[in-house]
Write a structure and sequence with these properties.
- The protein is an alpha+beta fold and 763 residues long.
- It has 3 domains: 293 residues; 287 residues, Helix Hairpins; 91 residues, Thrombin, subunit H.
- It contains 14 helices and 7 strands.
- A 6-stranded antiparallel beta barrel has the order 1-2-3-6-5-4.
- Helix 1 packs antiparallel against helix 9, helix 5 packs antiparallel against helix 9 and helix 8 packs across helix 13.
- The longest helix is centred in the middle third of the chain and has 177 residues.
- The protein starts with a helix and ends with a strand.
Length: 763
């Protein structure tokens, strides 16, 4: 970029800085209006004239600054889009009419304090976002970058301080008790303020004396003068006790601290404007000198054209190429060495110097970016750690409550099951008693049937005796017939033996005939002999058949006699069978009756046993229900204890945060002294760079022992200080933030005396 471009850029930066400063003033004035209006709306009454006048003044100042900033943006052209801010301003303007009527006494359409606070906060955030966009557009290397960052951090502090002021002012005005969410919001705002403050102080490397003075005044006002009241109000919000101060007193104290922050922010804007003006003047002066040099060069070219063509054009072209590469960001380009002391040589020397300066500027920018990133990481880590602690405590308590609730539900189910068991056992015992009574009645009826069956058996037994005598007589006759039949059968057996012999011989002859036929000798002579033998056997068989026929006739006669005898036996046996059937039926009835009686008795006994068992189950169920009631009572006590433990843990976390606020309120001194931190994991050597009555910051040396984790306890040893017990509050990539844990008041007094001595300059 040439000198004319640099001058134009400086003028543009001045205009952007003026617009940014106007937005900063507007945001501060609107924050005052936001807090005052929220408190007046929460008071539920007509506002006093003084408060309304203060609010109107802040509103007018904010509107004037906002209008000038927006007009400047329109005149410049380009830049960030102001539409979101204009939309937020229009929404807030729509509420202001209702607010003014409410503060005049007409509360009918008054907006809720939370609605007003949200709309005002949205406008302030839109103004801050637009200002950051302008700062980004106006950002340049070096001091301007750091001053822009300082102004941004101070703006963040004033914004969150304004939120804390407004939200607590509304609660104090209404006399309401802060909820846990509101307390956490106030403490979170405090953390954002502290984080932005730490970043702003880290960037005050080469700040001007006026800015240093304004920052020190802001520190005195916010962290010392206003800190006691702020701690009292936060403690009252945490504990739910009455507010220690009135709303006007709280608002005035917070406003003084915020005004000091806004003044420091305004001073940072003035320093930026002065620096940009200096750069602009330097650019314009450079442009004038460049113009003079250009005219001289033209004259020189006219006189020494031929010399220029021979001695200057080629080196100048090389130099131009190098400058172009440097302008494109290639800072590793090698610059040719100057071979003469003429303009080209000086230009080469200047180019080499420019490259060195650009490298240093890039390294400085990277260092500043790293420092900003570390500060932001530390702030985010602190907020995340606090949120994680609260979340873990709440999660553990909720898990305990949920588990005990599940146990309570299970116990209730068991209690219900025990009651159902008692009811079922009682019903079954009654049913068994009814069944036993019915079985007893059935046993009596079965006994009556048994008596009748016995009488019937006696009658049928007499009939059976007569039938048996007839059967004996018929049996003797049948025995004689069967004897004769046996003799006939014996003779038939003899005849059958003869026939069997004849049949054997016939079979043998048939075998011989078969053999002869097989031989087939002499045309069948053997067959004639065989045929004669067969004929003789046939005659013998005929005679035997006649004898068999006669024997069979005799057998038939005897068989008929036996048949008659057997018929008599059959009749007697049939009568006997009838009698026996009747007896069997009577016996069966007797058996059934007897079985019925036995079964009735068994059922009665079983029913009585079941009734006793059901009654025992009912007694056991009653005892179990009593035990279950005891378990329910115990679980209820455990749940109540878990809720109390959760409350105690949250109070401890927030009280620890307030103690950390006390530590940050102490004045710090910048020191450079060797020290070591002894902890459970070893010893960490380093340098103390920041010291106050509440704690210190230690930068560990490279290659030293391991650093402890956050929350670890240790002992700090440093020259000029007594050995101190410390707690590691925060650990970053480059430093350890320690909190002093004084054993007694005497130890604290020794540290205070050491700080009063020449240990370092005030930060």
């Amino acid at each position: 970029m040439n000198a004319f471009g640099e001058a134009a850029q400086a003028r543009a930066h001045q205009r952007l800085n003026m617009a940014s400063a106007g937005l900063t003033d507007a945001a501060g004035a609107f924050a005052v209006e936001r807090g005052l209006t929220a408190g007046l709306l929460a008071a539920n009454g007509a506002a006093n004239p003084a408060a309304r006048t203060t609010m109107a003044t802040a509103r007018a100042r904010g509107e004037t600054a906002l209008r000038q900033a927006l007009d400047g943006l329109v005149a410049m052209g380009g830049g960030p889009d102001p539409a979101p801010l204009q939309a937020a301003h229009a929404r807030l303007e729509a509420l202001r009419g209702d607010v003014d009527r409410a503060l005049a006494g007409d509360r009918a359409g008054a907006p809720a304090p939370a609605v007003w606070f949200a709309a005002a906060t949205a406008q302030i955030e839109a103004a801050v976002a637009l200002r950051r966009g302008l700062d980004a557009a106006a950002d340049v290397e070096g001091r301007v970058t750091r001053l822009v960052a300082v102004r941004d951090r101070l703006g963040e502090m004033s914004e969150y301080a304004g939120r804390q002021r407004g939200s607590l002012n509304g609660l104090i005005s209404a006399g309401a008790v802060a909820s846990l969410e509101q307390v956490l919001a106030a403490v979170t705002a405090e953390g954002r303020i502290d984080g932005a403050w730490a970043q702003a102080r880290a960037l005050l490397i080469d700040a001007s004396s006026p800015l240093q003075a304004k920052v020190s005044a802001a520190e005195q006002s916010w962290y010392r003068d206003f800190a006691p009241m702020r701690r009292q109000v936060l403690a009252a919000a945490l504990q739910g006790t009455p507010w220690p101060v009135a709303a006007p007193e709280w608002f005035a104290g917070a406003s003084r601290g915020i005004d000091a922050l806004l003044q420091a922010q305004a001073q940072a804007g003035e320093d930026i404007a002065a620096l940009l003006a200096t750069q602009r003047a330097a650019g314009e002066t450079g442009a004038t000198w460049h113009l003079v040099i250009l005219v001289a060069a033209v004259l020189l070219v006219a006189v020494l054209g031929w010399y220029v063509l021979r001695r200057i054009v080629r080196p100048l072209r090389e130099t131009t190429n190098v400058i172009e590469r440097l302008a494109q960001g290639d800072l590793e380009t090698e610059v040719p060495a100057a071979s003469s002391q003429d303009e080209v040589g000086r230009l080469l020397i200047a180019t080499a110097h420019f490259r060195t300066t650009a490298r240093e500027a890039r390294a400085l920018t990277e260092t500043q970016a790293k420092l900003r990133a570390e500060a932001e990481s530390a702030r985010v880590a602190a907020l995340q750690e606090m949120g994680q602690m609260v979340e873990e405590i709440g999660a553990r308590a909720i898990a305990t409550v949920r588990g005990k609730a599940d146990d309570l539900a299970a116990v209730a189910e068991r209690l219900q099951g025990g009651a159902a068991t008692v009811a079922d056992a009682t019903g079954l015992a009654r049913a068994d008693a009814d069944a036993a009574r019915a079985r007893t009645d059935a046993g009596a009826a079965a006994a009556a049937e048994l008596t009748a069956s016995i009488r019937e058996i006696a009658t049928q037994m007499d009939r059976a005796a007569g039938a048996s005598r007839n059967a004996v007589t018929c049996g003797v006759r049948a025995q004689e017939v069967f004897t004769a039949l046996e003799t006939s059968v014996r003779e038939i057996g003899e005849v059958a033996g003869l026939i069997n012999e004849i049949a054997g011989r016939t079979n043998l002859l048939a075998l011989n005939a078969t053999i002869e036929a097989a031989r087939a000798g002499e045309a069948g002579r053997g067959f004639a002999v065989v045929a004669g033998e067969v004929k003789a056997l046939a005659l013998e068989t005929a005679r035997s058949t006649g004898r068999i026929t006669r024997r069979i006739a005799t057998i038939e006669e005897h068989s008929r006699a036996a048949s008659g005898a057997m018929a008599s036996i059959t009749a007697s046996v049939a009568e006997l069978d009838t009698v026996a059937s009747a007896v069997a039926a009577a016996v069966e009835q007797q058996s059934a009756a007897t079985a019925g009686i036995a079964e009735a008795v068994r059922d009665a006994n079983a029913a009585a046993g079941r009734a006793a068992s059901r009654m025992a189950e009912a007694a056991e169920g009653t005892l179990h229900s009593m035990q279950t009631c005891g378990e329910v009572n115990e679980i209820a006590h455990v749940v109540a204890g878990s809720v109390g433990e959760m409350k105690t843990s949250l109070v401890s976390v927030l009280q620890a945060r307030i103690r950390d606020l006390d530590r940050r309120a102490d004045r710090r001194q910048t020191v450079r002294m060797p020290a070591r931190l002894e902890h459970a994991g070893g010893t960490c050597q380093g340098t103390l760079v920041d010291l106050s009555l509440g704690g210190a910051r230690l930068e560990p040396a490279a290659g030293t022992g391991p650093a402890p984790a956050a929350g670890a306890l240790g002992r700090l040893i440093a020259e000029g200080l007594p050995p101190l017990s410390v707690t590691l509050v925060q650990r970053t990539a480059r430093s350890l933030h320690l909190r002093f844990d004084f054993a007694d008041a005497a130890e604290k007094a020794r540290v205070q005396a050491a700080l009063a001595g020449p240990m370092g300059r005030a930060a």
